[in-house]
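okkk here we go again. third time trying to get the copper (II) ion bound version out, last two times i messed up the smiles copy paste (missing a bracket lol). double checked this time i swear
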Amino acid sequence: MAELAKTSEAVHRDYTGAKIGMWLFLFTEILLFGGLFLVYAVYRTKHQADFHTAAAELSVAIGAANTMILLTSSLTMALAIAAIRRSAKTASIVFQSLTILFAVIFLVNKYFEWGAKIGHGLYPNSPELLAQSHGTILFYGLYYVMTGLHALHVLIGIGLLLTMLILTVRDRITNTDFVKLENSGLYWHLVDIVWIYLFPLLYLIT
Amino acid sequence: MNDKEQNISTGAYIGIWAALIVLTGITVWVAGLHLGNLSTITALAIATVKTTLVLLFFMHLRYEKPLFIIMLFAPIVTLATIIGLTFVDVWFR
Amino acid sequence: METNFYTYSGKHRGILAWILSTDHKRIGLLYLSSMFTFFLAGATLGILMRLELIAPGPTIMTAQTYNAVFTLHGVIMIFLFIIPGIPAALGNFMLPLQIGARDVAFPRLNLLSWWFFITGGLIALTSLFTGGGPPDTGWTFYVPYSIRTGTNVSLALFGVFLLGLSSTLTGLNFVTTIHRMRAPGMTWFRLPLFQWSLYATGWVQLLATPILGITLLLVIIERFFGVGFFDPAKGGDPLLFEHLFWIYSHPAVYIMILPAMGAVSEIIPAFARRTIFGYKAIAYSSLAIALVGYLVWGHHMFTSGMSDASRVVFSLLTFLVAIPSGVKVFNWVASLYRGSIQTDAPMLFTLGFIFLFSIGGLTGLINGALSVNIHIHGTHFIVAHFHYTMFGGTAFAFFAALHYWFPKMFGRMYREGLARVAWFIIFIGFNTLYFPMFVLGWQGMPRRYYDYLPQFQTGNIISTIGSWILVSGLLLMLFNLVRSISKGEKVGDNPWGATTLEWKTSSPPPHNNFAEIPTVTTGPYVFK
Ligand SMILES: [Cu+2]
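finally!!
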């Protein structure tokens, strides 16, 4: 522990500090999406009926499937951290890879979902959409922006988790030094939480 | 590091996951009932229960220092206040 | 021979030893120098605006140029000078020193914040010379104009987005540092008050800036994809943009003023030679300001067509936020009572701060009163009000703190006589420049117009002359400080006889801040 006196190393071993930092970052994410939820709330209040008819166009099945996929990826993420704590390196690598796989499947689904909508001429500023009611325009605007921002976070998550995977393989993340993996997990669970709200708000307005 | 966390078994994690899946099923089912205004409230309530499960277990908040949970109230209260005050305008305009 | 952080040799050499350094002291000085460069640019634009207004009709620029100039003046002064101002420059330098730590919690993130800052600043400046010409929306970027104008708004918005990110990450770093890195014995109520203000500011940065981020992103998306959120033709609600914008931008004024209040709370005990009056009241009022500051944004929208109910609620809440500020002013003045006051430059700037900020704060209440606001909204009265709080408040406190910590940062002293003369010129120039605007605004002269009715000319001439006085004072002050970095008289580690921890280490501090981490046994302001 002699080098602890140099403290910039000691700083990085403050797990609680690292986790506080990560949680504070998540708070900023909550408010970033929170701003969008505010926009959603205001426009939904103004255009109840339009939102209902517009939302009926979305496929509940795809939305529900994607919800389950993300929830399962959250499980494998938690298991990956639990595994590294037990020094089960291989198990952790498997769980991390599964998490990434689920994330990719989520995005593939999203791609087809967006593709189908765009194929029907339903995208921001499209002539088809502009012919519809204000509420419908706003609903689809929210749909694209909210799921788009969320998908961007999934994409970043994939990059982050790939980095963690490499670090685990190279023994840079071990059972005594895994706060990076834990913080990546926190990020990933937050992405999941955002979706937990997006799903009913966009797909289940009946 | 917190040793208590070590105690969450794989089975417990899977249990939480199962609960989350079941809750997702319930939201979809409730949405099909056409409860009107009530359906938004139930959907948000169920989403909040799911979020709480993720926060407490997957994100280990249950096993962290109380400071973490106290801090978490800051963004939640802020967001609620912002939305509430904006609606003082939206509702009465 | 002990090396200080200037002579310490790290991994890199030359300029890289600065722009790649993770040492909070070097990063603080990076901010300080880049900020002052931006400040001079913003001040130049301000001077040009005042020159245009010396006579009615076109004087030195066209109406379109004037629109661009006031936009850029606002963007630069707010996002590049006064928001990073005290926390990022002086806060970075002093935060670890004051709590007895060797660095901030995340040194590399700290460097990244500066990189976001400088990139965002340069992008914002690039928007001047590229695309459809400099943005002409005002720093508030109000829709629907900002989504329709052909000027280079998107790039400027992206620059500001990066600046917001930088500010958020600084807040994250500071809050974590204050939680985790205090020296042994440094309990929460032994924290210097500057730290309390940085802590409160950090939370505001964390919880308010993301709203700005998403709002700016939405405007950019709107400009590129025509989603319709803020376009009335597609059902969008421009008022919602104003809500989102001010949800950030009102708390942002507390990002600007809280650290200033904190710095003042350090200087007063040091120059009155007695402990601060009402330590806890000042500490808690920082948190209270951060909290209540969230609830008042609607006072910027009284004439925008909000519901009557919300106008009444926001007006009432605005009056509440004056209470914690009043608590602070009361405590500062009470701390001076029976102190043995020394009137060196830091103290003079501090007294200037208390006086000018009080005017700014009280005129804020005038603006906050719903009925009066209808009369003065969008006039020069508002311009005068916020320059009294932001310049008379924050910038004066910033200059006070700069003089106060100058010997700590550079190990040398500025020339006291010159500093006092500069203070006097700045104080006179400031009031000559901005006070007439109260009168002009009350008489009905609108802001953001490059032209005015002939009856307003006298006030405008006085104001423009004031801008010349103010700038000469500022230049004198900067000259004094810059020359003293290398030519100033060498002084000891604690020339003011102050009591907080940063004065216990050498000047300039060593790379690791303290040879040995101090143990704290008393509150911050115990004078023997
Ligand atoms: Cu305000």
